[in-house]
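Project channel, design review

CF: Before we commit to the Oscillochloris trichoides DG-6 constructs, I'd like one complete example in the thread so the newer folks can see what an input/output pair looks like. Taking tRNA (guanine-N(1)-)-methyltransferase.
RD: sounds good, go ahead.
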Amino acid sequence: MRFDILTLFPGMFAPLEESILKRAQQAGTISIGLHNIRDWATDRHRTADDAPYGGGAGMVMKAAPLAAAIRAVVEEAAPPVILLSPDGEPFTQALASELAQQPWLVLVCGHYEGLDERVRESLISREISIGDYVLTGGELAAMVVVDAVARLVPGVIDGESIAEESHSDGLLEYPHYTRPAVWEGRAVPAILTSGHHGEVAKWRRRERLRRTLVRRPDMLRRAREQGLLDKHDLA
Ligand code: ADE
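CF: and here is what came back for tRNA (guanine-N(1)-)-methyltransferase:
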């Protein structure tokens, strides 16, 4: 899968060169292109922002450099062009799964007070917010989206861990333990060392339900409404 990121601050994306995303890029499972919007500014000072018409605080990203950057990256193709913005649709695991079906995403990081509305109208196909709070720019949000989407691309991580993790099927995860069997007086639940795989599976399911009920009753309600729970879960 291919990601292209348009930003005024390409230096903010160093974290994508670590860990799983680094390995996935080296393996060619994903590729991430970084593009500095300022490279498409045509004046001597490479100006990418200007004061808002109508007055007011802050600066607005200019239409021409941003539009030229998007068009240069997209060329004749039509990948989704996604603006990261606090005004966008909420980012969820379901949206991450949907985006992971695409072969190519173009992510545009907004900055300053926003961008010229006319670029939104003519070139942005979708807007995504990672939460109801305001960041200094779309860069961290773009990294969140790349990370959550990339790990769903086949081959990036082991598929088993995706199937049983928080949010993948409407429930939170069960607790995990590794050696030693007793740590600071706390023992691992006996069932996990019993060797009874069927009982372990039942225990994990129960723990997922318990944890979701206590921490996220809203999620449990939704899982029930969507028919994601079976009769054993409800007993
Ligand atoms: N840019 C600024 N705040 C943001 C948010 N919450 N989500 C996505 N992009 C943003």
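RD: helpful, thanks. The CA atoms of residues 209 and 233 lie 7 Å apart.
CF: The chain has a mean pLDDT of 95.
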